[in-house]
Amino acid sequence: MEVSGGIRHLLFSYVLINGILITLEAKEEVLLDMRAAGRELGWLTWPPNVEREGSQKSQVGWEVHQRTLNGSQFYTYQVCNVEEREQDNWLRTTFIQRHPSASRVFVELKFIVRDCNSFGEGTLTCKETFNLFTSESDADVGTTFRKGQFRKVATIAPDEITKRNEMHLNTETRYVENLSRKGFYLAFQDIGACVAIFSVRVFYKTCPATVKSLAVFPETVARGGEKQVLREVSGTCVENAESEEQPRIYCTLDGEWVVPVGQCQCKPGFEEAEDSCRECQPGFFKADASSSKCEPCPDNTQRLNPGASFCPCMAGFYRAHTDPITGPCSGLPSAPKDLEATSNHLPAGKLLLSWNPPEYTGGRDDITYSVLCQRCESFECKPCGEKIRYDPASMGLTVTRVSVSELDAHFNYTFTVEAHSGVSVLVNEAAPRTARLSSTTLTTSLQHTDPPRIASMRLVERDSTSLSLSWDVSPRQLVQSPSVHYELAYRKKDNKLDVTTYVVLKLERSSVKISDLAPGTAYLVKVQAFSSDGSSGGSSVEEQFETLSDEHLNKTGVILTSAVGGAIMLLLVIVILVLCRRRSNSHARQGPEDAYFSNPEQLKPLKTYVDPHTYEDPNIAVLKFATEIHPSHITKQKVIGAGEFGEVYRGILKGPGRKEVAVAIKTLKPGYTEKQRQDFLSEASIMGQFTHQNIIRLEGVVTKFKHAMIVTEYMENGALDRYLRDHDGEFTSYQLLGMLRGIAAGMKYLSEMSYVHRDLAARNILVNTTLECKVSDFGLSRVLEDEPEGTYTTSGGKIPIRWTAPEAIAYRK
User: Fold this and answer.
1) Which of 404, 425, 446 is the last residue of a domain?
2) Is residue 318 within 8 Å of residue 425, measured between CB atoms?
3) How many distinct structural domains can be found in the chain?
4) Could you give the CA distance from residue 211 to residue 786 in angstroms, rounded to a whole number?
5) Which of 243, 300, 383, 404 is buried most deeply by CB count within 10 Å?
6) Is there a binding annotation on residue 666?
7) Are residues 807 and 661 in the same domain?
8) pLDDT digit string (tens) for 789-806?
9) Taking Cα atoms as reference points, which of 579, 456, 463 lies closest to residue 518?
């Protein structure tokens, strides 16, 4: 047959040009390959072959042809009954097993279609297209063939038609989707065309395993349908990388990865290298999880092994508590230079210390100075004591001079001036202060002072045979000086005869008791003070003191005894009167009001805040107690949690004329009910009425726009319960006590405002960077039920009674 011979000629031509290289961006998993199967195709043709007159077999449908090229066999299916009417020839593949995840497969056809015009005018029924069908099944049905079980996929038409002396190979790809059973068949229907099928390849596409943004994504079958174009795939970070949220990416129907969401970042001590995280090289470090490169270790730090998250300080160098871990280390400052003291043109007992800054500051600019004074005598030095005055101060000096006053003359003073910086507190304090490398000392003494003078004398105690006296010395500081001594002279006063004979006592203290005196006698006394160099400011004025007589002592004893007895009697009378009056008052006060005040139910605190639930419209309460913020002033940065009403973001609030402040932003999730919106606004209305440093501060609300928000101050350390678990054992008792005090202060304020919190738990206490604790979460409803289970119901679920304030149970709040 001429037509059949033309097809065979074209087959050989195709084999010669079959060096076609196919490059696919996506990975293809082949389910059926006609060329790879060779002669083991076993495809079913319908209708079956029939015999005509003369026992000459004739193929009326699809037939397979075999050729050999370079020792390899080549098979094709062809049909060319263009001269016969009403053609309905079917070619069905074998049963194709489907991958469970592949609901969409591709069918790639390579074929030739002859031009109907090349057969002459007698082929009026000739076609130039054929049809592709499919049928799903859970098992191989063998040779059973029912056309009604097949559904049409597409009509296959060539892009180029093959004419008599030329060949045009067409490649068409169609897809079959929404497959759900274990396998399927493909079928090709000929309705009167001259077709040769060279290749049928059935495959599904997969997005190949890949690494993107340091996240590993597994090989994923590309699937979809009318409603699902992209398939979301979750990945995992590569080794030594981490992410705040799980990385995701989407696999398209064509097997390509698109739209990665989330990014993994190398952990501290690692940097990105191609698609992995490698350790920082020795001498480099990275302190946090980020996409940045490792940095060289800063000055005065050690170069450790690979993978350093920070570079520790070298011996003799330190970081202050406020220094960043990424910064350089600092040394201790050297001693101040040129320390000197001068007392010229200064009042007595005063000198001026001055010095120059240290030559080496340790690489810091926070240098301060301290001054220590010691008074030395007989090879022993003691602190000068609190009487010494420093101007402007003795500690935390930022200037290089200080005035010292209230000093005594003729004493050796040793002054030590020490330079400090932010790292000085980290140095071992066991070394003597005067031996530290950051200090310098100076020993000096004052030679000039005013001579001591007796300022006043007074009688301390007397009896019939003795007088106890004391006196003051000017300058005052000489009173305690062991170098000052005194001479006291006294004589008996005689009005008849001028007696000039004195008794002289040499004393080391500014007080004395003179004994062996005559009763009822007047004595004249004077005192003179001497300094260590023997100078004196002169004697005091002679003053008169008199001893008691014996008769006066007897009268005094009688008067004292009478006074004591009278006082005891008066005390007994007062006690009896008080007891009687208290008993009568206890009966007289008992009245109807006592029953009222003795009943705990009547002692409910007066409300000083306004309950927003009393408003018919919650918007009115919000406008009254909260500030409306325009959404353009708010910038969301990242999700930090999820609350009862929606997600909670960290963000920035930048109002007109205000600085940027970090805030927490509570949002109302989409699809909320009116009840949820009222509870959401009620929390803001309650929070807006409180002003206390231990209560979370409301910055404002957004209610006039589509997305409602509550904006509060941002607490960097988050909830107290998690913060304590993450830093277990790191706090001192004083820090914990301060945190407890803050919580108690906040709850005391709420109690004074007559507000019952109903859910005081560590998870509802927020902590900032200064470890200041603040009470939060005012969103619980007021519904309280009588249940034996020890819980009460809120809008967010059931809350144990153990977290509930006693008032909430007692007063049904």
Assistant:
1) 446
2) no
3) 5
4) 57
5) 404
6) yes
7) yes
8) 445 555 445 555 556 666
9) 463
